[in-house]
Amino acid sequence: MSAVVVFTGPTLSADEALTELNAEYRPPAAEGDVYRAARRGPPVIGIIDGYFEREPSVRHKEILWAMSQGIHVFGAASMGALRAAELEAFGMEGVGQIFEAYLDGGLEDDDEVAVAHGPAEVGFRAGSEAMVDIRHTLARAQATGVVSQATRAMLEAAAKSLFYPDRNYATVVRCAAELGAPPGELTALREWLPAGRSSLKHADALAMLRAIRERLAAGLAPKQVTYWFENSAMWESTWRLAGDTDDAGTVYSSDVLDELRLEGEGILRMHEAALLRALAVKHSYVQGMADPGPQRARAAQRLWREHEVKDERSRQAWMSANRLNDAQLGALLEDEARVSWIKSVAAFDASGYYLDQLRVAGDYPRLVERARRKQAALAALGLEEATVADAGTGEAELLRWYFEDRLGQPTPADVDAYCTRLGFTGRVSFMRCLAREYCFVNAAPAKAGTQG
Fold it and tell me: Within 10 Å of residue 7's Cβ, how many Cβ atoms?
């Protein structure tokens, strides 16, 4: 079983956290991070800090999924307190005063716990003060007689009016002075703050770690949930984009796509294909395909044949190379079945859009002109319906000419499958098309020009 995983950052350093709980400490949680951590099977995941703005926040669905896998998820202090309050009814366990305030409605706004912070290289050092900590500190200042209740209220209003990255005590005091707060009290507050300021977030984070430690010491059985985890489009998006974690570390989908972008415009073709894939999968539900059934098995056969996967060992190797577990492979094959089914259903309708798509892509004038020239040239030769015999060569030689000489690639091992994939009605239709091309190119090369 993996170690406890805790996401922390500006609220509590990993070094200090280790003095309270032996765990694997990771940076603030963003979308997909809890899912990746849960796949390793830790008994507990703790969330203290998480991203609010620069990166997508950790999703509720991945926390629900983690708990459905038997993992206890705790939250406190910052993003953890927010998510714990939102998911308390489903079994996420919140710790601390901030969690309690969100739970009972005393706090509502996300910006109450948000702070600006630096990167990992500087330990995620906070660059601003959390509103909850400002409130907590000002309450202490009032309790010790440093400021009056009225001045405290002015200071809190000034702090709340600021964008969260701009909140710091110097700015808050200056804004309160502009609002007319008593200068004497503000001076006293400035002098008191270095020793008197306090972080409720920090205290709640430590409290969560102690709670986890105590629960583990008492014996913690796998989490039991009362809900049935349902798949959804949002969840599909989350786990598909989450990347994966293995002994070599995390590889994010954005990093993989950056590698593709560096190869040139292949990213554009991939984007179009992925867009059509998404539409096909979604439309399969609209068309009533509740269960892919037999189509799933055929999709698996096609996939393994295309990638020359012939036995269990090569299948496991393919899954490892593509960073897929059994559940993810199952989802991939189900999608393949849905895409294939929609393609077969929509094939006739799609043919009516081919020419318009060529026009939009800018290829229609070139292709229609070449087709016109080929038609005229073959008509002049009496070869409108040219055959392999008219080409004066055998089928094997005609295939070699086309694939090796014209396309610069080996002749496919399965020519029939190649024909089907390109939309020919069969091998006979494909060979007739090649014969016409051969006669056109070789009978009138000056007119034929280059292919495409």
Answer: 26
Tell me how far apart the alpha carbons of residues 305 and 434 are, in angstroms, rounded to a whole number: 26
Find, among 317, 190, 170, 322, the residue nearest to 243 by Cα: 322
- Asked whether the predicted pLDDT for residue 359 surpasses 60, the reply is yes
Transcribe 305-369 into DSSP letters: HHTT--SHHHHHHHHHHTT--HHHHHHHHHHHHHHHHHHHHHHHHHHTTHHHHHHHHT-HHHHHH
Q: What's the CA gap between 91 and 64, in Å, rounded?
A: 9
Mean pLDDT across the chain: 85
Strand pairing partners for 46?
6, 74
Residues 6+ apart with CB under 8 A from 312: none
Token pair in block for residue 415:
């020519």
Tell me the pTM.
0.59
Cβ atoms of 169 and 129 closer than 8 Å: yes
* DSSP codes, 382-427: T-TT--TTTTTS-HHHHHHIIIIIIS-SPPPS-HHHHHHHHT-SSH
Q: Give 44's strand partners.
A: 72
Tokens of 67: 């708990």
E runs forming strands in 189-286: 244-246, 249-251
414 contacts 399 by C-beta, under 8 angstroms: no
